[in-house]
Amino acid sequence: MEAGELGEVFQVVTRRQGPFPHRIADVGVVKDLATHDIDLTGWVTGQDYVSISAHTVARSGRPHEDMVAAVGRLTDGSMVNHLVNWLSPLKERTTVVTGERGCFIADTLTADLTFYANGEVNTEWEALRAFRGVSEGDMIRYAIPKREPLLVEHERFRDAVLAAPADRPRATSSPCGRACGRSRCRPPS
Asked: Distance between CA atoms of 37 and 33, rounded to whole angstroms?
């Protein structure tokens, strides 16, 4: 998107649904999941929300909501839509960003990123040519390295701690002041 493949962004749609995770007892889908999609949308587009409204339901008998449908608008006028639930047997994590030149679809379960370009081929079919909408163009599935997400998160946390500025104490596990793990640096047992 930074390279401008989409042109102007028109809409961001996220779907995050799947079976109820039994580890969650104190919140519903809004606080547990929808906040991630709201944050992701702001980060991907570089825009803030100017409005958002939602409808929730609690169908599972738990005290918190297990389904939410939210609609909003970003500062650049783009529309957003978030569907989140714990009631579906289908596990889905998708983000679709649609713009003037096509759309990106990110599947965050499989770490797949696909770009669908608007068509640029003229048609000879008169009835179809009269329709001034978008047509299908090329599709590109990007080859992305697929690493275990929790491992990446832990590595980035470690790297941020190790790169702490000199005026801030660094977390270390050795008396030498480095998190090197060398036996001579470990405190005696």
From this structure: 7
